[in-house]
Amino acid sequence: MKGSVDTHLGPVWVEVADGAVVASGWGVAEGGDDPVLLATLDEVTAYFDGRLERFTVPLQPQVSGLTSRVLDALSAIPFGETRTYGDLSKDLGAPAQAIGQACGANPVPILIPCHRVLGATSLGGFSAPGGIEAKVWLLRHEGAAGLLI
């Protein structure tokens, strides 16, 4: 079941299945009354309103292998902090390019904070409409703006 909520970056949709969030993305989706869906949409709203720093809804993205390990590492990055692709490469024993590809394959952006991962000499990419500008907005929203100066 899918539903969406308006945010500062435009509409964000969320999909739940079997009591957990399995995907999210950018755009509008029809709503439903699933309790996990409604709780997730409330948490997304609270995050964008500055009232939530850590999502508590159950996440179950349909990934495996390195991507699963990368998403776990992303979920461990605290609100307002960042890591580089190189940091994650060292931690996970995988090439930085593979880390970047796994970040790009994140099926649950925002809730799994791929926006908190930067390149060694650049901001890296981001899947939202507006790309890097959206990533900069999220980092500023989380108080990580000092990294951008």
Automatic annotation (TrEMBL):
Superkingdom of this protein's organism: Bacteria
PROSITE patterns reported for this sequence: MGMT (PS00374)
Nucleotidyltransferase as UniProt keyword: no
Catalyzed reactions per annotation: a 4-O-methyl-thymidine in DNA + L-cysteinyl-[protein] = a thymidine in DNA + S-methyl-L-cysteinyl-[protein]; a 6-O-methyl-2'-deoxyguanosine in DNA + L-cysteinyl-[protein] = S-methyl-L-cysteinyl-[protein] + a 2'-deoxyguanosine in DNA
Boundaries of every Methylated-DNA-[protein]-cysteine S-methyltransferase DNA binding domain copy: 67-144
Coiled-coil blocks: none
Organism expressing this protein natively: [Roseibacterium] beibuensis
Protein name: Methylated-DNA--[protein]-cysteine S-methyltransferase
Keywords annotated in UniProt: DNA damage, DNA repair, Methyltransferase, Transferase
